[in-house]
Structure formats: C-alpha cells, structure tokens
Structure prediction request, 1035 residues.
Amino acid sequence: MPPPRSFHRLFVANRGEVAVRVARACDELGITPVFAVSEADRDAPWVHGRESICLGPARAAASYLDATRVVQAARQTHCTALHPGWGFLSENPLLAALCEHHGVTFIGPPAHVMHQMGKKIPAKRAMAKAGLAVIPGSEGVLRDADDAIATAERVGVPVLLKANSGGGGRGMRIARSLDEVASAYADAQAEARAAFGDERVYMERLLEGGRHVEIQIIADRWGNVCHLGERDCTVQRNHQKLIEESPSPVLDPREREQTLARAVNAARSIGYVGAGTMEFLLDTSAKPAVLRFMEMNTRLQVEHCVSEQRSGIDLVHEQIRVAAGHRLSFTQDQVELRGHAIECRINAEDPEDGFRPTPGTITRWEVPSGPGIRVDTHVAQGYVVPPHYDSLLCKVITMAEHRDAAADLMIDALGRLQCEGVSTTASMHRQILASAAFRSNHYDTRTIPGWGGGKGSG
Amino acid sequence: MVHVPVAPIGRPRKSFLDDATFTANQDAVAGREATLAQRRAEVAAGWGEQYVKRVHDKGKRTARERLEALADPGTRTFEVGTFVNYGLEFGDGKQKCPGAGVVTAFAQIHGRWCMVIANDNTVASGSWWPKTPEKIERAQMMALRLRLPTVYLVDCSGLFLPEQSRSFPGATGAGHIFKMNSLLSDAGVPQLAGVFGDCIAGGGYMPLISDRVYMTEQAYMVIAGAALIKGAKSQKITSLDIGGPEVHVHTSRCADVRVPDDDTLVAALRADVARLPGSAVAYYRGDAGPVDPAHGTAELAGILPVDHRESYDATEVLARLVDQSLLWEVMPSVGEEMMCGIGRIGGLWCGFVINRQGLVGDPAEPGARRPAAILYRAGIAKISAFSRACNDDGIPLVWLQDISGFDIGVEAERQGLLSYGSNLIYTNSTNAVPMFTVLLRKASGAGYYAMAGMPYDPVVQLSTTLSRLSVMEGRTLAIATYNTKLDDDFQITATDPAERQKIEAGMRAVESRIEGDMDPWVAARQMDTDEIVELGELRDYLTMLVEASYQSTGYRRIKNSRIWSMHDLAIVSEGLR
Prediction:
C-alpha cells in the first residue's frame, strides 16, 4: 500500500536518536525531513547527506529551545509540518501556537489542549470528570489555612502543598503531620507569591513509592482514540526512567482493563489529537491497588518503542497521518498486544561514579542485533558525545514471550553492545535485570532493584 | 492557513523589575484591593443578616442565591454596577441602598453568557432607588449591544417613594426600563422573566414584555398593591388575591407558567435558555482555545505602580492579558506613545490599544525623548486607523487607558490636534464593533474621551483600584481655576496677606476636592464607570466580555482573519512591497 498523501517536507525540531527516529518514519512515508541543528550538531552523523539548517549556538536555550527561531527555520526551509520529538519544546504550547499561526502543522495536540494538560488543576479536574482515579487532594486551590487543615484531615497526611502557578519545585512544601499544615501552607504561599506573584496553592496527598504505570494513547482529529496498552517505568533514578516494560508485571487485569478504557474516554473528552501518555501511580496503599492519574505527557515519549514492539504499530507514522487529517490506520479491535517488551536506556554516564556524564569520542561502536532485539540510536563509530545535551547513546528493546525471557535476552544483548571511548550504563542494566528483586518485583520508584549504587552515589 | 503574524511579547518579571519594587507595588495594590473585597462583601450583604433571614423565613431565596443557582455550577458570574450609590443615603431615614437595590451580572447558563438583572430582595424588598432604573437600563444596554439573552429575576415592591422625583420622571426614569424591554424585544434579544414576589407598579411592568413569564406561588404583579387599593377603594384584600398566579397565569394571561417555588423557577429559566441556539464561541475559535498568558496575570499587581507619575512597560501589561503572551503589534514604527495590537483572549481575536509610559522618541527631533501617556498627532492617527480597521473587521476592541491627555501648546494647535482628535472621536462614536474600556490608572481630560471613555459608549467600562478619572489633575485644575490671580510662574500675585491666604486656601480646597473626585469609588457610585476590578481579575473580565461579543451570530460583522483590512494597514504603514 503506498503511503498516504501528506506533507512534502517535515521539519525535525530535535536532535540525536529522536531526529533519527522521526527521519526513519519520514523516509518510509516518502516525506523529506529537514533537520534543525545547533552549531554543536552541524556534522552529526544523522544529518549526513540530509538537509539541515542551523538554529544557533550549541547552548540549547539559543537553539533547540528557541521557539521563534525554530518556527522561522521551518518556514524558511519550506516545511509544512514540524515534529517536535520529545524533550526540548515538545510540550511547549507556544511552539504549537506559533506553528499554527505561521502555517506549519504542529505534530501534536492543539496548543490549548497541551496547555490544559500542562496545568495540574485543570488536568486533574478533566481526568476526574472522565472517571479516572486521581490523587486525593483539594478541589482546586485552597481558600485559607483552615481549608488547608480541613483538606489535610480529609485526605490524610503526609500532604504536599504546591503552587498553582508553580514549577521547578518552588512554592512546594510537605507536611507530615496535621500540626505542620498551617505553617507549610504559609511557607508555600509566601514562596509562591515571591516567585510567581500568585500565592494560590493546592494540596495533594503525598504518595511515596508505588509503581509508575503509564498508558499510551493515540487519537486522530475525528474522535477516534486508541490505547496501545500500558508501560511500567518503576525502575527510576531521581525520577529519571531507566528501564521500561510492557505489560506491567504487577497490575491486576481488572484494574488494567478498566483504566485503559477510561483513559481512552478521557483523551476523547478533552479533544486530544496525536500521541500522548497518561502517567499513573499504582497506589498500593489502597486494597486492591488503584492507578491514580498523575499527569499527561502531550507528546511521544522516549519509551514509545516498547508499545510499538508489542503492538506492531508505528507511532510516528500514525502521528504524521493524523496531523495531516487522516484517520488512525487501525481500530482498537485490531490492536493485538503480544508478549513482553523491555527497554533499557543506555547513557554515556559512569554508574560507578555517581552517574557522572562522560562526554567524549566513541572509538568503537557495535550494537547487538537478532530476533527480538531492536536498537534505536544516532551514534556511529567516531561520534563525539557533546557535553551540551542529555547523554543518551541508544535504547535497546527486547521482546519475548514472557518477562523472564525478555530480560534474559536483554542481558545477552547488552553483553554484545560494544562501546569504547566513553563509559556507559549498560553494566548497571544487566545487574538490575539479573537481580532477584527485579525478577520478583520487589521494588518501587524509590529503589533501584539489584543496584546498591556505585561508589559515588552514597 | 490563516496568517496573523503574532509573536511572543513580554519578559519574565525578574528580568525587568527587582523583587523589592515588585513586592512594594504588590503591597500598595493589595491594600486597595482589600478595600475592594471588603466593599464588595458589604454590598453583597444587602441590608444584612436580618433581611436575609426574613427572605428565608418566607421560603424564598435572596437575589444572589437565585443568581448563583441560575448560573452553571463552577462558573464565575461577573457583576457590573456593584458600587452604584455606594455610601449614599436617601430619604428622611438616611437609608443606604447597596448596589442600588439590584444585582446586574453576566452569568453563564448552559454555556451561554446571559445578562441577569435581579432585584435585591434584601434591600427594601427590592424597591427602586434613584439610579436603580439607570443601573438596570445600563445592563439592558449591554445585553442589547451584545445580543445576550436577558433574564429578569423580579422581586420589587415598586419605587422608593420618598425619592420618587429622582427616579420617576426623567429621560432615564423607571419607565425607560420598559422602553429598553421593548428595544431588546424589537432587536430579537431573548428575554425571560421570573416573578418571585412583590411586583408592584414598575415591578409589574418589567416582566411583561419578556418572551416567557414565570410566577411562583408567592408572586404577584399589580398596577397598585393592596395598600393603595385599601386607600382608594376601601377594599380589604391581599395583593396575592389581586395579582397572584391564580389571576395572571389563568385569567389575565399576563404570565405564562406558575411554579411552586424559587428553585423550580430558576430551573425552568435554565431549561429555557438551554433551548436557545448555542454559543458561537467555539465556532469562532476554530482550532484555537483559551491558553493562559506565558507571563502570569497575577504579576500585574506588582508591575503597575500606584503612583501615577511612575512609569511601567505597557508591553508587559499586554503580555499578561493576551493568550500565550502572543501579539501582533500593528504599526509599531509610528506613534510610539501608543501601542496597538491583535491577540487572542480566551481563544478569540481581540484588538488592544494601550498607552506607553515614561519617555518615547520624538519624530520631530531624532534622538530626543518626550513624555509618553500623551496623545500626539501620530499616535492619534494610529489609534484612529486601528480603531476603524477593528470595526471594519469585526474585531472587538479593548482600550487600556493610562493617559494624561492631548499634547498642548502652539505646535499642537498648528498641527491641528483638534481635528485629528475629532476624527478619532467620530470613528469611535460610529463604531459598531463591541468596544470595552479599562481605566488602568490615569484617565485625564480629552484623553479619556479619545480612548473611548464612558461618554463614547463602550459596552462596558472597567476601572482598576488605581484609576484616576477627571478632566485634569487636581493641582492643574486649581491653577486653571485661579489663573487670573496667578503670575506666569503660577505664584499668587496679590500682596495683601489676607487675600493671599484666601487664594491659597481656595486652591487647596479645589485640589483636594478634585483628588477626592478622582477616586474610582466616586466614579462607580455615579455610574461614570461600570465596575471596579482587581488587576488580577482583569483578564477574566475581558475574556468573558470578548466571549460574549462572539456568542451570537448574525447581528454584527465578523471577518475571518485572511480578509482583515488590518493587513492593508500593516502593509501600508510599514512600507512593505
């Protein structure tokens, strides 16, 4: 079947493995990708023999993060669509709005939907309305200290106070007992007023630990919404995901089925378009355990490959299709999720030395291959890992009938990954996957199973 | 793809304003806005708990409770005219009438903005005081201009008789309310009336022209109440017997439907509004939707200094009002003292005109600077052309005033500022597009007129707590008043000490009187402005007004942005080929 008619030229507003991933889809769909690069990435392997345009200096703030430059560059190179990838400006409604106003189709949801999901209170309200369980807390912003105390009594301590206009942890306070609520409220308010000129704060019960489960959604402009199952991303270090897998090994089938259906409805109810992920915390303090909505990522994610491997659906293809106004190429009934998939993110970091980044030149690079193994990477032998950006080298995804088999295959694959010149986190991943804690699911988001931490991690 | 070349405006607050100044400004505004909150609460309380209880004891709801029940749950209602008659006393008993005894508010019912006019039954049983008719008529005019369904919650014991000469006979006397009822009906604006209690004389006429009239079992409508009948005809009979639902729903057919109680009536009104065509707001938004400004609106209160002599960056104000802080500034290179632009608010296109503050370039002397917040020739021509283009294109227009007035002096007269100003005034006077005016701070002299102040019929005019409305500043006005007794340096010419003292005292008196009159509370009390709002809620008010401007179809011009004449203006003014 020939690819559907759509954009002739597509602007790739990203770098590294993201750019490679998007370009692969463009090639398959007969679209010419045009790469945005910073000065540091001018000669990067993924732009060899391709069209590219330099956005500006290596510093991301002056290149990959400057929405005005990005849109100008897309216009200048006569692109009619723009893929933001993940990271950088991918969740920035300003980029989406500038694209639309300047005649470039943004591959993602409309700016106002992105904005709504980016704001905690409206997002939570919309999801609760659609029937998803949310983290117990205040209904919107708190009126005063008395309201804060009453809310804390209702939802139970410990509680988290967060600034309505917040971000970056400012205006955030934890109260572990009811006595602490009034002062935590006052502190959060004062900090929020100073930082954002908006002293309004809201409250949520602080859920510690638990498992991170997320649902992959894809929607077209015509109200068709599908899920590609869930992913479990509980293996994390400081909120950075290390290993993602699907299905979640601990999720009750009824809770899974119910939440998947509600997530689809929720996405439809907010007018969602494109690929997105709803992130949940599996609250094990409730019996049976409940998936509570945390936030929605209005973009494709790093770990989308896990869902692609299980479903056989190419999410970037679908994103481009729906952006051009086509309907999804499949229906929910046609989605068949098979086996178990695991993804490991391999970074240029030294896990033995507190995950210190190790930029430098890669002198030898060989990636594993074989049945059930997928590697997404932008790296080639001789590649210089620049110090300016995140240090991901590749993602290895394995797929097998069962979890243990997928983990064994991953251990084998990572053993065959040859990388010289920089340290990588591959050995840590092998250790985790081989551990009894990982195999028997004895961990939550606070602990890395089978990993005591290298010498620098304390 | 529709092409409105918007670009991000504004900067993070910390990059242009230090914490100390920001906090000091915030504190100064907070003091004034605390007064606003306290006075709003005072008006909302009507005549107090005792009267609320009296209403409840009758099994009825207060006007504000009815309004709340009428509006969609979780939505905000936007009152206008809250402070009409604020602080004034009437009659021999020196009685106050909070809100002039009537609540007028924009409220959303089944997603449609409506104008709700509710007699305040906690203030003298909802009777009509001096300015009550004017307040009701003003709300009706807003509804007429925007074609908003109008809902009357009637509970009115008639005129407050001791002051009848101030509310009965004039051009805007109580009877003019019914003329407005007629004009609304004539223009096809849906009107609904719920009669909840006493509706005597005027209160009886107000509901009748509405498309549908409901009565509760406690409601009656009469030309004259029981007391008057007793006096005139010596008949002892209750008002309910004279004009209750038994009479008006069944015999006279002056009302359509009888309902048992307040709550049922409110539910019936909601159901009626739901039968009207839906709002066109989503249609005109297209693929866009409401998005908060990139820079927090809450920061406005720390950006505007209370002292009108201190300056601020007007761009930063707009950046905190428009969606995503995205604006297409039109004609940026002419008349720098004025800033005009188009942005979205609540996902809908809207034009903005704002005065720049501080110093700006002087076209006559390259490199020289002259004070902004003044209307010079180029600025006048620019806002006049912009205003005309907004009208041509059907783009609602918001005027944000912080203006000292027109430029004066020989050069100004030679340039013919009188003519340029009149041209602008003609434009604004004949515009059909909805215009809204905000008095951010100064609103002085003809500047107030030129920028669509109240005498130029903006649909709604809002004032912040910092606003100062007058023909000129107090000191200037004192000098003008005593002009003949002053020398060229504004010094008193008289030598006699007693005479000097008299003049000094006179000038001080004039100055302090003017200072007092510039108070926004005076303007609101006299209906020289429609509402006093917090800086932090300004965007909410404007969003509501712009949504209301796009709600109804077919009565005004709305062009898609491809064919805006604004594009011609931009090309011509920028000399693009």
About this structure: The first strand of chain B starts at residue 7 and ends at 8.
